[in-house]
Amino acid sequence: MKKNRILVVDDEPGIREGCRRALTPHGYSIQTAENGEEGLQFIQSGEFDLALVDVMMPGMNGIDLITLIHEYDPEIVCIIITGYATVELAVTAIKQGAYDFLTKPFTTDDLLLVVNQGLERRRLSLEAKRLQTIEAEAQNLAEEKARLEELDQAKIAFIRLVTHELQAPISAISTYLDLILNEYIPSERQREYLERAQQRAQEQLKLISDLLEFGRLKEIKTTKKAEQVQVDAELHKVISELEPLATGNNIKLSVDISGDLEPVFMPPDQVKSIWTNLLSNAIKFTPLGGTVFIQLHKRESTIYGKVQDNGIGIPANAKDKIFSEFFRAQNAKDLNIPGTGLGLAIVKQIINKVGGDIWYESEINKGTSFNFGLPVVAVD
Q1: Which of 20, 63, 195, 214 could be stapled to 30 by a disulfide with Cβ–Cβ 3.0 to 4.6 Å?
Q2: 114: helix, coil or strand?
Q3: Strand 291-299 and strand 252-257: pairing?
Q4: pTM listed for this prediction
Q5: Per-residue pLDDT tens digits for 192-233
């Protein structure tokens, strides 16, 4: 068993030696110091359980020494030794952190009693802290266990959902091909079924592409390199790619870009992904002859973008789920409008990851406006 270490700080050699002789036979390890400065050096260079400190010493007095001892280790029990015991002194000593005090001259029994009580107080204090630490660790473990269980359930639900989303198009493609191979479809209608199979395959490829992008966004570390990107330049690229789709549906794209826009700091393909998902959704959900309005401007240290359509809108019961993975509103399903249900989840992940924000306003059968803000690159 480890011996309790006791420091005796007193300018009287007789007191120091008397304490050593009285305490050593009882299994204590004793170190002595003749003044406050030397006592503090011992405290800072070793481990002590209790300190017996004389009040009146040349240089640093005992009250000041107790303060410095507790700054170094608040668990060291300090007992004052004094030849001038008064109520005022006792109050001052206790206020400064002293556990008790001994009045000179004192007997070996007096010394042992106060030392043993002081060490028991230290033991109880340390045990209470140990139990508090154990309780805190147990609470943290319980919270972490609950969080992991929640993540595990979410992962199972996600896998089940992904499996369903991947399985349905493959089953359809397989059915179309079986019908053709087994000659259930007349030759003049085979192209129709092959086109259906091709469409489902393209939907499958889009879903896999979205899953890969969504998975990369969930990673703590990413291999995507961030750089200074002009949001308007990426917008123009996406417009040129989606313009044929809009023209084919007789949808007008109206663009308003105001002022000189500062760059944002993020992977360029992620900026492009924001525009691609928001614009393709707007075009998909806007009826023939409609308009999609795109706005881009800077205010203070943020680039703000808007994609507004006059399409089918978002039902009230879907508004809390619109950024969830694989979620598609019922009115979109009813119209058989294709989609993976990952586009908006991807957009939100990208924007949140760089400290931006996204929000929307929508009215059923009148349209939806998605708005987002991205922080600009700080210029030194």
Answers
A1: 20
A2: helix
A3: parallel
A4: 0.51
A5: 888 888 877 877 777 777 677 666 666 645 556 889 999 999
